[in-house]
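FYI - complex with zinc ion, inputs then prediction.
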Amino acid sequence: MTDPAKTRRTTNVVAGPDVGRWRCPCCQEDAPRLLPNGMPNRHPLRPADAWLHHPDVEAAVHETGAHADFDICLGCRDTVHQLLGTLVVPRGEQAELLNARGLAGTALIGAVLPGMEGQTLILVFAANGERLRLSETIPLGDFDPGRMTYPDERGDIDPVTWAAYQDGLKRLRRGL
Ligand SMILES: [Zn+2]
């Protein structure tokens, strides 16, 4: 026998985490406002999350007209954290996971900018004399994560790139 309480239509159900969707400007996906465990899935992006505190990087970011005045989903926040400040080997090459020494031509992800004309752009910087210059602008979907490299020592990486990388690591550890 069917329990009538179980078959009755319920119209006064409390809205669950899956309702109230919003569009994350980083992944361009309709994301739930809450995760299944009830935690919020919208996180404010701070400038320090999106670009390195370096005058050459900040100047290049300023030229793009980027800002960090919006929320992104938890998955994108983690992605941005992983990418920002990471060293990358040249386009078309794959980083050796166990390579402890940095290789010549290694560059630095100086900015990850969501909301740029409907996409997220990764800005890669390379040393140019005493300065860092923008060397590549890559849509997030086209980025090859196999280029990310984590050498223990500078090796043949340009000292300017290495110094900016080390400074980024220090700020990360201090939570800035
Ligand atoms: Zn997202």
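The chain has one domain: 43-174. The first helix runs from residue 4 to 7.
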